[in-house]
Design goal:
Elements: E1 7-11, E2 14-18, H1 26-40, H2 44-56, H3 60-72, H4 80-92, H5 96-108, H6 116-128
Antiparallel strand pairs: 1-2
Helix pairs in contact: 1-2, 2-3, 3-4, 4-5, 5-6
Length: 148
């Protein structure tokens, strides 16, 4: 049996290349679309299962949004190490916003050992990939627990 050519699927900025047909990606895109709609309504708990499925399947935008939730503790227990894990997956796959967020995690030592060289490396990658350093509320630096 011959394998099908690689296909790229784009949904709301979600880019994913696979060695299977585009139809195989429809569940990932569908999970992500459902999660986004539910997140926009403010129901993080209801969005979480679909967002986690899309992130686990390799959807970089879902990975980045999931990391944002763990970074801020929005609807999930705040866990900076889990945030770093998801930012790293998306960053390594080329997501510029995740690359910049990972740079900040290294710069401030959130969830990882503070490392200026890694922060600089990820920041440079993000900027080279077109990231605009305008910050949304989700991207604001966070305080370490007990630092206020």
């Amino acid at each position: 049996m011959q394998s099908q050519p690689s296909t790229t699927v784009a949904v709301y900025g979600l880019m994913r290349t696979t060695a299977t047909s585009a139809t195989a990606q429809q569940p990932v895109a569908s999970d992500y679309e459902a999660a986004v709609a539910t997140l926009e309504s403010g129901d993080v708990a209801a969005a979480l299962p679909a967002l986690e499925r899309a992130a686990a399947a390799g959807a970089t935008e879902a990975q980045t949004r999931l990391a944002d939730l763990y970074k801020t503790g929005s609807g999930v227990p705040r866990d900076l190490r889990v945030a770093v894990k998801w930012y790293r997956k998306a960053a390594e796959a080329g997501d510029p916003r995740a690359q910049y967020a990972l740079a900040e995690m290294y710069a401030y030592g959130y969830g990882v050992k503070q490392d200026a060289a890694k922060a600089s490396e990820w920041s440079a990658r993000a900027l080279a990939n077109g990231y605009q350093a305008e910050r949304s509320a989700e991207e604001q630096p966070v305080e370490e627990p007990g630092s206020s």
